[in-house]
Specification:
By secondary structure, the protein is mostly beta strands. 8% of the residues lie in helices and 58% in strands. The longest helix is centred in the middle third of the chain and has 13 residues, at 81-93.
């Protein structure tokens, strides 16, 4: 089955084939041999990808899931092919919003977080500081709006283009 996955703002195409305990995954055209097993009755799993083992913890959230992989936390949104096509048709009819996602311009570590959920912000207000290569970079609001959801915490490591804050 084909899925469209968004991991901390990065979009991926994933095809999944199932066996007994085995999964064959094709992620953006690259094939992986995997095994996925539930560790306990909760949300903890063991994932083996090409003979490397990872511990996964899943936590449901609004509009997706938080997934911790060996202690690194990612926000994951998942759509099957049908939902992805429907979303594409709906978005084609909507006017683009100018302020929806605040993303990391570079990989780094979140050192300060100024934004809080439901906070009103003006264009130019500081939202978050990312440290990269021993330099601190302040990420500012690119327009007036309201913080809908803060997806990172102080101390988190983030990739380039990772979604940090959702605005409305």
């Amino acid at each position: 089955m084909k899925y469209f996955v968004k991991v901390s703002g990065r979009k991926l195409s994933v095809e999944v084939g199932k066996g007994d305990d085995e999964l064959s995954l094709i992620v953006d055209g690259k094939s992986y041999h995997t095994e996925l097993k539930r560790v306990d009755s909760g949300n903890i799993f063991s994932l083996i990808v090409d003979n490397y083992s990872y511990q996964l913890f899943f936590e449901e959230a609004e509009n997706g899931n938080w997934v911790s992989v060996d202690g690194h936390k990612f926000f994951v949104e998942l759509e099957d092919k049908k939902a992805h096509l429907i979303r594409g048709f709906i978005k084609a009819d909507q006017k683009p919003r100018r302020l929806t996602e605040i993303t990391a311009p570079m990989p780094g570590r979140i050192t300060r977080l100024f934004a809080k959920e439901n906070q009103l912000v003006k264009k130019g207000d500081g939202l978050v500081i990312i440290e990269a290569m021993k330099m601190e970079n302040e990420i500012r609001a690119n327009g007036d709006g309201t913080v809908r959801e803060v997806l990172v915490n102080e101390g988190d490591s983030v990739d380039k283009d990772a979604v940090l804050i959702l605005m409305k």
